[in-house]
């Protein structure tokens, strides 16, 4: 038994030695460093202008809460004044009190009638605008209940695509500075935005087609895009450049407009 065990150990040790020798003899292919172009992209959002229309169950729940609040609420100063003046008027008619005529010159009921008349003249702004009826995707005055995202037409290779504004990073710039410069070059000075921070919120990379890759050993094989989030300060100030083709699209429209791999990356940081 000891002899068989000794032989088994020798066989295993020889097998391990041969594998180690084969591993050392096999040359390891060196990994080639690939160069990538760095880009900064900007997600520009126009936030909703009006609150969303309530769903039926939401409207019913809101009505129930309002009814509960009304039943448990105390009387306001206007209601107390109205009751007091009503009692004074009844006593005045009965001749039990004598009030100065100036005291009842403008009663709470008169104020209430004036308020109701003013409210009847008030007309809220429409939720559906002219830009909605024309489906003007260049207008910020559409889809007031939703968030709109800016897309600009940019040329990649020989074709043009609608993408989030993006620009090539320059030496000496931070990515945030590249994003600010890119947005200014694409959209002009009229569009004013506020950036949320200095850190990117998303990332996307793609390889260039072989026909448009840079020549030489140092040529870039593709682009890495780091996205920054920003919000429009004043919705009345739109893109100021007439030479740029742009669109303001909702999330549903983005899914139809953008290519699927690109949209999958962008949708990760859409609110």
From TrEMBL:
It is found in: Mitochondrion. The keyword Acyltransferase does not apply. Residues 124-271 form the Nudix hydrolase domain. Keywords: Mitochondrion, Ribonucleoprotein, Ribosomal protein, Signal, Transit peptide. GO terms for cellular component: mitochondrial inner membrane; mitochondrial large ribosomal subunit. GO terms for molecular function: structural constituent of ribosome. CDD domains: NUDIX_MRP_L46. It comes from the Eukaryota. Residues 1-25 form the signal peptide. Belongs to the mitochondrion-specific ribosomal protein mL46 family. This is Large ribosomal subunit protein mL46. It comes from Anopheles gambiae. The gene is 1277274.
């Amino acid at each position: 038994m000891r002899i068989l065990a000794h032989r088994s150990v020798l066989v295993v040790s020889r097998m391990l030695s041969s594998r180690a020798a084969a591993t050392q003899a096999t040359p390891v292919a060196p990994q080639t460093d690939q160069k990538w172009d760095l880009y900064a992209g900007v997600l520009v959002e126009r936030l909703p202008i009006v609150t969303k229309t309530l769903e039926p169950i939401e409207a019913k729940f809101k009505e129930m809460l309002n009814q509960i609040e009304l039943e448990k609420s105390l009387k306001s100063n206007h209601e107390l004044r109205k009751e007091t003046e009503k009692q004074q008027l009844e006593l005045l008619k009965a001749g039990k009190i004598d009030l100065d005529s100036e005291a009842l010159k403008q009663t709470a009921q008169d104020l209430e009638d004036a308020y109701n008349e003013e409210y009847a003249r008030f007309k809220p702004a429409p939720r559906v605008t002219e830009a909605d009826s024309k489906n003007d995707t260049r207008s910020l005055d559409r889809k007031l209940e939703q968030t709109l995202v800016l897309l600009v037409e940019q040329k990649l290779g020989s074709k043009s695509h609608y993408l989030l504004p993006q620009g090539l990073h320059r030496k000496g710039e931070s990515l945030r500075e590249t994003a600010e410069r890119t947005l200014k070059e694409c959209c002009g000075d009229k569009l004013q935005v506020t950036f949320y921070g200095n850190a990117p919120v998303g990332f996307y990379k793609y390889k260039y087609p072989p026909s448009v890759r840079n020549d030489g050993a140092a040529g870039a094989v593709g682009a890495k895009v780091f996205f920054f989030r920003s919000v429009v300060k004043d919705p009345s100030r739109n893109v100021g450049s007439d030479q740029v083709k742009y669109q303001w699209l909702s999330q549903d429209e983005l899914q139809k407009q953008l290519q699927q791999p690109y949209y999958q990356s962008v949708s990760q940081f859409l609110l």
